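Try it yourself: sequence plus 2-amino-3-ketobutyric acid, in.
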Amino acid sequence: MKKILVTGALGQIGSELTMYLRKLYGFDSVIASGLHKKDNAVVIESGPFELIDVQNAKQLYDCVKKYNVDTIIHLAAILSAVGEDNPSLAWKINVDGLFNTLEVARENNCAVFTPSSIAAFGPTTPSDQTPQLTIQRPTTMYGVTKVSGEILCDYYYQRYGVDTRGVRYPGIISYVTLPGGGTTDYAVHIYYDALLKGKFTCNLSKGTFMDMMYMPDALDAVVQLMEANPENLINRNAFNITAMQFDPELIYLEIKKHIPDFTIDYNIDRVKQKIADSWPNSLDDSAAQEEWGWKPKYNLESMTIDMLDKLKEKLAK
Ligand code: NAD
Ligand code: AKB
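Structure, out:
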């Protein structure tokens, strides 16, 4: 990776990944892009920034030409809960936007990283230790777009030799930018509410287990996979990766170790609960371990210590 374009760079993952890549590859070598120039001043001002709507292939093409981009990190997307509210927008951005990105990559010989998600699985998928290759019949529009994206990336590699790579992220937990309307968002909001209010109302029920990951591991995964020797990649796209599994009660109890008066109650969001129930309890990520050395650094305990420290600092400003 020498000249990198990040789409959706102002979102939860993009805002941190852009800065991480700029530190590794040089501030002028990472072009951030987004729909607007609001928020995240650090990302907008610390290196090149372009307004790009991924529905507009010409904007993507012109930017790739202007900066001689060789790698596109494609993060622009609509997440699960927002996608259920507006399925047609989710299809346009997640599938048509990815199609435009892959076409521009094909025309300009770029590599492409695209994240899929645990949402690419559904209620008929084996939910414990979900294998790399298994049944994928998701019941959300977000999940439908993620499976389509996985297959589209495979197609561009097989048909045109575009160097497509990607992972299936679990829920990502972070303190820099708030999550953008997913089902796993509760696992971020619980830390904010623990510190700001001392109590949290959870929209998913006890016993709802899902895979999760702390942001530093999610960022490392991109660099490790994109720098991996292609000869070792059997799967290329949509690698299962995970770092931990918990339900609302377990994360609550972990936070309570540090904030003893913290309380939780439940007010279930039926749409989000149905989505969460259709996703795996735990992924088998052995293919990622074997093919490119995937190994997360954080578990629930170490993530909670770091999240509370960093959030306390942020909220005190
Ligand atoms: P996010 O919602 O925080 O950010 C997405 C960004 O895309 C936003 O800044 C939004 O403004 C932008 N965007 C929306 N429509 C656009 C368009 N037409 N053109 C350009 N930009 C547009 O999402 P995120 O959490 O940062 O997710 C990034 C990627 O990772 C997505 O593909 C998502 O599906 C995947 N993922 C995220 C998680 C997670 O927990 N955050 C988990 C699994 C997979
Ligand atoms: C969501 O909940 O929609 C995302 C995801 C797991 O893809 N966080």
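One thing you can check immediately is this: Residues 87-108 form the longest helix (22 residues).
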